[in-house]
Write a structure and sequence with these properties.
The protein starts with a strand and ends with a helix. The longest helix has 16 residues. By secondary structure, the chain is of the alpha/beta class. The protein contains twelve helices and 16 strands. It is 33% helix and 24% strand. Bound molecules: nicotinamide-adenine-dinucleotide (NAD).
Length: 338
């Protein structure tokens, strides 16, 4: 089967990781990435051997900076089967029209609304809903994290309701502009948008969320309280998490007490860019009392959605019908063990 030709629009935090992941798949070809300005990241794309495509108005600026471009964004659209849009949130509408005019499939990210595509994607929860679709949206990092654990729990032991507090990282590590750099900032518009975003994939789930921004760049942490339909044991929950795709159990007893230790673990694993693609659950922090389950999980916001984008390409381009088979293929290429 011919390789699916993939373009990545926007080469920032998410786009550069999607590009690396696409290039690692043996059934996909990375045709190129886009960059708006001749920054160090544009040079890094060239060094990695990626074709660089830029807005027509900016071609000269790249030439002046000595950076060789392959063409314009419109040229890229003529050479791909699917584009993964990794531009900042809320520019999607403008690009959707371009992608549709060029007749290419497009994946958007969690910064866009569900209404932009009408389909949202999570590999664990609804792989088949994007089968053959022209447009889909990989939900945000936090929503991906919640779906990875709540969906398998709901499948096995029906969830009556879930309540989550999200302790959010203030900025990504490469971002020196956003904050707070000191203090904790509650999201006062309640409940936060994260619950409805989970419902874009599990509309039946009764879930409410609150969020607090914290002065850290490493990861988000979720405190999750779930009411189940029946009384189960802590071991029952651990068994669900052990077999859930892209969920990693760690123990505080082993020295993994904070998100800093998780990032150190990712470095020890030799992961590309020190990424932790799995949702990390503290095994010794899982507790069931009656039919109420409590647990903590950590989300590496820069990377948990990357394998999801790869699976979404396979579903939309009808490359692999079985979710588990796509996940296994993606995981193998990206060095994810579960
Ligand atoms: P980013 O700012 O790091 O990268 C965006 C890239 O798009 C930059 O390279 C920028 O130069 C480029 N860009 C800006 N305007 C453009 C335009 N008009 N046309 C083409 N390229 C343009 O952003 P990001 O963090 O990678 O976020 C991208 C998307 O992924 C957003 O929807 C965001 O909500 C979502 N997302 C982000 C994270 C995260 O934690 N960073 C996690 C999950 C999902």
């Amino acid at each position: 089967m011919a390789k699916i030709r993939v373009g990545v629009n926007g080469f920032g935090t998410i786009g550069k990781r999607v590009a690396t992941a696409v290039a690692a798949q043996d059934d996909m070809e990375l045709v190129g990435v886009t960059k708006t300005r001749p920054s160090f990241e544009a040079k890094s794309a060239i060094e990695k051997g990626y074709g660089l495509y830029v807005p027509a108005d900016n071609v000269q600026a790249f030439k002046d900076a000595g950076i060789e471009v392959k063409g314009t964004i419109d040229d890229l659209l003529k050479s791909v089967d699917i584009i993964v849009d990794c531009t900042p949130g809320n520019v999607g509408e403008e690009y959707r029209a371009k992608y549709q005019a060029a007749g290419v499939k497009a994946i958007f990210q969690g910064g866009e609304d569900h209404a932009l595509t009408g389909i949202s994607f999570n590999s664990t929860a609804n792989y088949s809903e994007s089968w053959g679709a022209q447009l889909s949206r990989v939900v945000s990092c936090n929503t991906t994290g919640l779906l990875r654990t709540l969906n398998p729990l709901d499948k096995k032991y029906k969830i009556k309701n879930a309540f989550v507090t999200i302790v959010r990282r203030a900025a990504d590590p490469g971002d020196a502009k956003n904050g707070p750099i000191n203090g904790l900032e509650p999201s006062v518009k309640l409940p936060t948008h994260h619950g409805p975003d989970v419902q874009s994939i599990m509309p039946w789930l009764n879930i409410n969320t609150m969020a607090v921004k914290a002065s850290t760049t490493l990861m988000h942490v979720h405190t999750v309280v779930v009411q189940l339909d029946q009384e189960i044991t802590t071991q029952d929950v651990l068994d669900v998490f052990k077999s859930a795709p892209r969920v990693r159990l760690v123990k505080s007893k082993d020295g993994i007490k904070s998100t800093a230790n998780i990032m150190e673990l990712a470095r020890e694993l030799g992961r590309d860019r020190s990424d932790m693609y799995e949702i990390v659950v503290w095994e010794d922090g899982v507790k069931v009392v009656g039919n109420t389950l409590y647990y903590y999980q950590a989300v590496h916001q820069e990377s948990d959605v990357i394998p999801e984008n790869i699976d979404c390409i396979r579903s939309m381009c009808k490359m692999e019908q079985d979710a588990a088979a796509s996940q296994a293929k993606t995981n193998k290429a990206m060095g994810i063990s579960q």
